[in-house]
Amino acid sequence: MSTAQVIRIAMSSPGDVSGLKSLFASGRLAPGDVLAVLAKTEGNGCVNDYTRGYTTFAYQVLLAETLGVSREEIARKVAFVMSGGTEGVLSPHVTIFARAGAGGTASGPKRLSIGVAHTRDFLPEEIGRMAMVHETARAVRAAMTDAGIDGERDVHFVQIKCPLLTSERSEDARKRGRDVVTTDTYESMGYSRGASALGVGLALGEVDAGRVSDDAICSEWQLQSAVASTSAGVELMNCEIIVMGNAAGAGSDLVIGHSVMRDAIDGEAVREALGSVGIHVNGSVRTADAERIVNVFAKAEADPSGYVRGRRHTMLNDSDINNTRHARAVVSAVIASIVGDPMVYVSGGAEHQGPPGGGPVAVIARA
Amino acid sequence: MSTAQVIRIAMSSPGDVSGLKSLFASGRLAPGDVLAVLAKTEGNGCVNDYTRGYTTFAYQVLLAETLGVSREEIARKVAFVMSGGTEGVLSPHVTIFARAGAGGTASGPKRLSIGVAHTRDFLPEEIGRMAMVHETARAVRAAMTDAGIDGERDVHFVQIKCPLLTSERSEDARKRGRDVVTTDTYESMGYSRGASALGVGLALGEVDAGRVSDDAICSEWQLQSAVASTSAGVELMNCEIIVMGNAAGAGSDLVIGHSVMRDAIDGEAVREALGSVGIHVNGSVRTADAERIVNVFAKAEADPSGYVRGRRHTMLNDSDINNTRHARAVVSAVIASIVGDPMVYVSGGAEHQGPPGGGPVAVIARA
Amino acid sequence: MSTAQVIRIAMSSPGDVSGLKSLFASGRLAPGDVLAVLAKTEGNGCVNDYTRGYTTFAYQVLLAETLGVSREEIARKVAFVMSGGTEGVLSPHVTIFARAGAGGTASGPKRLSIGVAHTRDFLPEEIGRMAMVHETARAVRAAMTDAGIDGERDVHFVQIKCPLLTSERSEDARKRGRDVVTTDTYESMGYSRGASALGVGLALGEVDAGRVSDDAICSEWQLQSAVASTSAGVELMNCEIIVMGNAAGAGSDLVIGHSVMRDAIDGEAVREALGSVGIHVNGSVRTADAERIVNVFAKAEADPSGYVRGRRHTMLNDSDINNTRHARAVVSAVIASIVGDPMVYVSGGAEHQGPPGGGPVAVIARA
Amino acid sequence: MSTAQVIRIAMSSPGDVSGLKSLFASGRLAPGDVLAVLAKTEGNGCVNDYTRGYTTFAYQVLLAETLGVSREEIARKVAFVMSGGTEGVLSPHVTIFARAGAGGTASGPKRLSIGVAHTRDFLPEEIGRMAMVHETARAVRAAMTDAGIDGERDVHFVQIKCPLLTSERSEDARKRGRDVVTTDTYESMGYSRGASALGVGLALGEVDAGRVSDDAICSEWQLQSAVASTSAGVELMNCEIIVMGNAAGAGSDLVIGHSVMRDAIDGEAVREALGSVGIHVNGSVRTADAERIVNVFAKAEADPSGYVRGRRHTMLNDSDINNTRHARAVVSAVIASIVGDPMVYVSGGAEHQGPPGGGPVAVIARA
């Protein structure tokens, strides 16, 4: 069985690849083992955030030059998931997910295992609809198999990169006599994230197959996955899926656990997630325990009701600062205050990922 | 001895005075008892934040019409302290400080008492310099006397509204052959806040009189007050000072306590402040205790080092969102996650108010 | 016949009413003659722009106190149209429209005349639909009669303040078994502006009655009015209409003319509008002519195609600055560079008001 | 004598190098002839604008791969001048400056010639001071010689990329017992731009050598160059200088001319610059003439007086949108409305480059 590695590296700017370069140079990480690059970049996290493209390009150049292959090949083999927005105390960084060929014994304790899968390419008219939900669910199961994870309850985080609709893609559907879920590019991101999340929910038995429908996507918010984290990007037409869970016999020294924040200030859920990997916290994590934490992953969104704990918030009416920016600042501050570290991964846009205004939170820690 | 009242009221917009109007109508509060109006308004909290002026005007109109006096008289008799910026979960609201003539016995337990004082008007060349520090220190002592607070350690929050330099004021000094601390209006706000905070520190024995000097203001950051909260406004040339502390025999059913956040994610300090008024917290405040809390008051600023807990933050380099906005989002999220309520008072700009990147945090609660 | 007065006054802040106060004090303007207050205030012009409410409140307080009547009565009798956003060189100001009882002779040359009318209150389900279009058209004709304007071609600017849908209003319709045009508050502003503009177009014969339908509103962009300028506000449920045109025998010394900007940089249209009131311009207005200009009124929007003159613009993808802010900066700069004065009125959101990406531009000048 | 080529290419994103790649592929431009890449990128143009770094990196990768050399060598041989900010109608693009070895006859008419020079590296304490002014002046003369331009009046645009002070650089000076002009990184950019511009002014006889001093830099604003365009970057310690002018016998089919905008809405200056290359304009450029224009280059800044043509502007008090963003939106709109094309180069920050609130404007056109 393969061995998962998860390494968090600080970045001094969106083009900074020096940390990973050093790991390669020192032999601590083999360039060919890299499965995924998950970055928190310092743009606005919204439409015109080019820090995501910059970081992707910089890491593709590094990997291509190091491995002596084309950038196109790197793009095919490695998943690049970029989440823009380091509001508040959030600290720009990249998390490298890697997997070495061997290691582990089938009889050992459950440890972190990472599985990867892709869906087929979607047609524009499938994006944000049931075809996407079902195909994503299938691929999530395939990624579980790839990871050697048997039970749904051993899956703790499913990171998905999904496509969106551009005007060209919508036009292509229209020419073939098909309609799309929305012609608004920005809105299509939400539908794609939502359908992908419901695919996770379906695969893991979190949502009732009988209740998921085209109409329910981005509408029936009580349908939720507690472990899905999805983000839409323009550069692909399929879903790239990274399943993280614990598997018996995985050769890693890491474990993963999760909980669900019921709202943006739900510190108890963060403590529950930490507790699930054996880090018990009253107020803040003790120094000794802090060293065990590799990273925390969470989704954030402004509560669509306009209220948090019965108090009016102003995030949805703010025409100067996008509400996702506010939400990331809040959730990251809550997590940082508990783990004592602002270099965590908090991403915006949480359709069907936890309850409205809340979202999944997962922890990877040394066992 | 007089009885302090502190009432927190939600606002639906910067012009919403309906809550206070209802309190007057119901007889729960006598209009003439109002000492100060401390609001958290939903603007950007920076230079062009007109929500502060709007709220001030709206409350002045209400009080003037209710009491049948001119708006000018209201402006002279009531302190209006407006802090703009409700980033993240912060919920717009106003805190009304009032004081009724009688109540309390000299022999009772220590309870919240509020004292008010003004400095003389400053000359432009005195703003942000030692003349301001000394005169503010004198007025803080006067406000303590007004509140019947004997000991420095019984003072837990000193809210000061201080002046700033406009180009006209700087020019006036220049014509008289005097120079001012800075000709930059925005910078002068920091100097004025800093000198006022050092005045508090001097009055309460927090800073060594021998070390405070013109050069030390906004430079020697280890000189700090743990209870000062100062904000600069264009509409006055003196300092308006509200001292909050506990006094034996005060007739209020409220108490106040405080602590100092060492950085923006210092949840432990928030728990210490709560503990100091008898609310003991592990993670978050219990529901029963939550009802005791009247409001939490804190200062926030982006750590000037560019780092929080050794991690690079991006607040100081963000040209889209002012760093004070980021800082308020963070500190309010941390406090809200602990007290379970986002309607708290967090204000930006913390020169000499707690350590760099941190700031005072105070709690008023029912005894 | 009554005499129209149009006076432009600089504002030093959203609460500054000193200019109008002076006009009253000097007797140059009678408080009771004020028909409308049209302001360009220095907020963001988007959802959380409270400078509009602040200015409205400040002028209502001034007028109520001056005339010795309630603020409610002022709100009923005077139209307050607030346009937020003074991007680029735009200079905050208010334009006061007034009308004195007498003056003019039926035989004189055509001069500026101002007419006012209101529609009935709309039901929520009527907003943004044909009921609104027809009722607005009727009221525009009534305002023309009020102004003594006979021909459609003598109408050069129709300023309308129209309602929007809040969640309460949508809910009210739903309870009565009716659906609304959209449940999105922000979107409802566009539908209301669009339907009001089509009402103007219908009244003036600019659009073919047979082609206007519920489906065409905010969809068939070739249906346009060349003189409509509409803005939505939360404080009313009907439309307030101010028609400006030239009428024979009007006693004013002012005239009005207009043209239509085909895109945001269409300087020629600005020159045509100036030419229509007898100010002929090659590059920029000559000093002597500049003194004749009272104000220029224009609508601005980011070209929805994503292109201006075949060049990609980035306004629609900018998540830091709202596209209406960009558009106002551009159109006002073009106008200011031609008239040599940045204190002009440029308002955003131009549905069915001129062509996509363009908009009406009108000039009021001394004859 | 060498032949100058200037090619403007639209960009679809900060990483888009496809246009230049096509030019190389078609043989229209030889990769080795590229002297400078001057881009207008779609970031905020302020501190955290990473579109500049992204575009630089993308073009360096393209040139390095095309020429088969290292990126470091490309960085040494080609000047990359990135100006962020495409506010309003500004359209993202790159202008490629190239020079082929031969062409032209000494007896021909004056045509565009481009000269390049570098200063020596500066010590931190020299940045923003007279040492920088003098060394820059020397290098400007050297670049004139390189271009074969004899007279100062034949120089029409001098683009300079200059260094700035980081905290490390200031600390280095301090350790050697030297002080720097400012320890504020953002402010040091202004000093460096200002000193570089005065270097141009000195070289071209625009400013009196006797009046330029350390104290005058960024203080005596009447000292100006009418052709300097300077921008500061962190990646160098010297100045890279590109002189553009007309030289007898230059083999190009291009000419250059300039004027100076007295303020941000000075359309007449734009017309003068066009007139200086033989394009005579009343209102807007005629279609036939439009095709002659290769690009327009201008500097923009918010008038530091707070007024434009006697009207208050709000750019300097806007804490949501940086004043340089407003200024670029205005100047580009004015230029675009005259030349009928929004794909022009307008850059912010104009210390000693034209008068306060104004700036140089240059035109390169086909002869």
Protein described:
The structure is a homotetramer of 367-residue chains. The first copy, chain A, has helices at 18-26, 51-67, 71-77, 130-147, 167-175, 185-203, 267-275, 287-290, 323-339, and strands at residues 3-10, 34-41, 79-84, 93-100, 110-118, 155-162, 228-232, 240-248, 254-261, 293-300, 307-308, 311-312, 345-348, 359-366. With 367 residues, chain A is α+β, with helices and mostly antiparallel strands. In chain A, the strands form four sheets. Chain A has a four-stranded mixed β-sheet with strand order 1-4-2-3. In chain A, strands 5-8-6-7 form a four-stranded mixed β-sheet. The first copy, chain A, has a four-stranded mixed β-sheet with strand order 9-14-10-13, covered by helices on one side. Chain A is globular. The two termini of chain A are 18 Å apart. In chain A, 61% of the residues are buried. Chains in contact: A-B, A-C, A-D, B-C, B-D, C-D. Chains B and D meet through loops of B and loops of D.
Concise overview:
The structure is a homotetramer of 367-residue chains. With 367 residues, chain A is α+β, with helices and mostly antiparallel strands.
